[in-house]
Amino acid sequence: MAFAYTVSVIDAAGAVDDAALRALTEAAAAQWSQYIHGFGSIDIQVTVTATTRANARAATTNPIGTSGSLTLYETSPATELQTGRDLNGAAPDILINVDPGFLAFFSLDPGSAPPTGKADGLGLMMHEIGHGLGFVSLRNPDTGAFAGAASTWDAALLETANGLFFGGATARAVHGGPVAVTTLRNGEQYSHIGNSLNEEIGWDLMNGVATVTGRRYPISDLDLAMLKDIGLPVISGVNGDPLLDPFFYAATYPAVTAARLSAVDHYNQWGWRDGLDPSAAFSTLGYRAANSDVAAAGLNPLLHFEQFGWREGRDAVAWFDTTLYLARNPDVAAIGVDPLVHYLSFGRFEGRAAYSAIGAPDSFTHGAFDAEYYLLANPDVARLALAAGGDPAARAYAQYQASGWREGRDPNSVFKVKDYLAANPDVQAAGLDPLLHYDTYGWREGRDPAAGFDTRAYLAAYADVADAGVDPLLHYLQYGALEGRSTFGDGVIA
Length: 494
Hints:
InterPro entries: MetalloPept_cat_dom_sf. The chain is of the alpha/beta class. The protein has helices at 18-33, 76-83, 100-103, 121-133, 152-155, 169-175, 221-229, 246-252, 254-258, 263-271, 284-290, 292-296, 301-309, 322-328, 330-335, 339-347, 371-377, 379-388, 392-404, 417-423, 425-429, 434-442, 455-461, 463-468, 472-480, and strands at residues 4-10, 41-48, 54-58, 61-67, 70-75, 94-98, 106-107, 119-120, 149-151, 157-160, 163-166, 179-180. The protein folds into 3 domains: 4-230, no CATH class; 281-412, no CATH class; 414-493, no CATH class. 40% of the residues lie in helices and 11% in strands. The strands form 4 sheets. A 4-stranded mixed β-sheet has the order 1-2-6-3. The model has no long low-confidence stretch (mean pLDDT 97).
């Protein structure tokens, strides 16, 4: 569960099965909670009352800025999910009203598809909760005009000669273009999508066209993309895997969306073989090159990482070290979950740090050159190394020596090539490989490899390292980081 919630039902006349309605609404909230991180608890109140159909709204809205001349508001649940601030205190956050006669047309069983002649009750309550989360316009429903205020949903809408469209970047990528907003004068205008059942989006959970009996209305990637565009902390698509991110995939590889292929199917069938990345948190080429056994076996690298790799201390991307994250977060290690998935789903929102990748201690065969980091950080080098065959780590070092450092590529997660050369004009003038210079002479002369690592301070603080006469940067990469030793970074390269 990514956010907490409570559900209460007010049914003064005893017109419906309150326990069933509560369970249905809890199941609907649980569906949204799978995909959205949240602080606090979203309190949902369902009132059974004569209201013709069903409607919902956030109990409160929160001013967050301006959009042109309009004051811009987000829903109080959106504020609470992002910040933990509960603007309503003990009062409900989302208010849902449902007519008992209307509810009679819906199946109240959340566990199975609605039977013939009944509509999807789970979909109904997910739809209404969606309005409470952010699918809401502050336009006048009759004129479409604003009265000094707009919602975050409104701010993402585009008025064109062809109609009104949701234009958020994530939704455009997932949908393959702007998303038509309901403008039919059917009471659903401006806060829904679609204007016809002939459109694909006319069958979406948040459609404003119709609810057809006998079928489910699940949350879609498009629904999540729109909420992501208006600021909600969406952590994954409906596949539930933040490492296979349909929003990233659609934006990065638009041809896949144009072909109406899902990110999951495309990546698992073709994408990884073509070197495509499933998300910003996984380097397909880097992982295969840094793990030649995976490449040689012809394995899907993402599946390997998720099933085995993280448990073996392998890293998926240059900016995240699985072993260090688990070492710094023993509570995460204790529950035995994928550290990168934990970070993306929870840790980043909780203020936990990510640590750049460092290869295994025995992988450092050329001073402080870290082949794993280099291949993860440079997918073009990884692609060439895989194509050339042989040992990718050796090819990575050869590329670094031949041209990489001249191109400003960093040899490990700490050393900064450009900064070292700028701070040491003698090294630059001599045309020397800066890492080789540091490993051979620089550290002995008290030079720093980066503003984030103080050579003298490291040796002064750790007598065992100084007494052993070893390169302090290499020691840190092989042992010190995992031992919790400090880099003493002072922002200055001495």
